[in-house]
Amino acid sequence: MGEIVVVHGANRLAFSDELSVAELRKQLEDRTGVPAAAQKLIMRGKSLTDDEIVVKLGSKVMLLGSTAESRKETDAMAKIRKVEKRVGELDVTREELSATLHEISRGFLDKEETADVLDTLEKKLKSCEEGLRQCLESLDSIPAESDTVRIHRKAAVLECQAKLRVCDHLRDDVSLAREDPNDEVESRRGTTHS
Fold first, then answer.
1. pLDDT tens digits for 25-58?
2. Mean pLDDT, residues 176-190
3. Which of 99, 107, 146, 151 has a CA-to-CA distance to 80 between 20 and 30 Å?
4. DSSP character for 56?
């Protein structure tokens, strides 16, 4: 019964004096970085309020709450995941456009239909590229205040840039298809972009 033990995640903090709940919150803020207003203290299954006078020696208290930095990191990671999801959606669209171009190159359409389909394909490709640029702008606006966020943001940027390069190649393939719509895209370029 010699101390108050506070469990916060995997950490165990010990206090050797009886403390009021307000004093305990202040000391926990100093030791954990969790702001007093964001702390939830639980003892014997009940939330402690500042109205309670003293936490006695021998008590075991659970601290729930996170630091402002950890909340910022969580928010930043959520934004990165949202951008990654959008990049994935845009890449599915790009793959569909690539498949459409491949079908055009197989010669199943006459020249007029091919021109119309290529016009539509170019518009959709432009929209896809614009979406990827917006994703890059979104990633650029996310502050990288921790190594974790910095690493994930960088990976997302590189992925987005790679998808933009693939769109550039697809745009070149569309231009080549306009010149000779019945020639296989793969044979002209020597590679595929799927």
1. 999 988 888 888 788 999 988 888 877 777 888 8
2. 59
3. 99
4. P
Look at residue 181 and tell me if it is in a domain. yes
Beta-carbon contacts of residue 174 (< 8 Å; ≥ 6 apart): 101, 118, 121, 122, 125
Domain span at 118: 69-189
What digits encode the pLDDT tens for the residues 124-149?
999 999 999 999 999 999 988 778 88
Quote the pTM value.
0.60
Compute the C-alpha angle 138/141/142, nearest 5°. 95
Residues 73-98 as b/e (b if ≥16 CB within 10 A, e otherwise) read beebbebbeebbebbeebbeebeebb
Question: How big is the CA angle at 60 (ends 55 and 72), to the nearest 5 degrees?
Answer: 95
**Assigned domain for 25 exists:** yes
Tokens matching residue 117:
């389909």
Q: Residue-wise over 50-61: b if at least 16 C-beta within 10 A, else e?
A: eeeeebeeebeb
The total domain count for the chain is 2
pLDDT above 50: residue 12: yes
Residue 194, in any domain of the structure: no
For residues 125 and 28, give the distance between their C-alpha atoms in angstroms, rounded to a whole number: 54
| CATH code (residue 126) | 1.20.58.120
Residue 100, in any domain of the structure: yes
**Domain final residue pick, 39, 66, 93:** 66
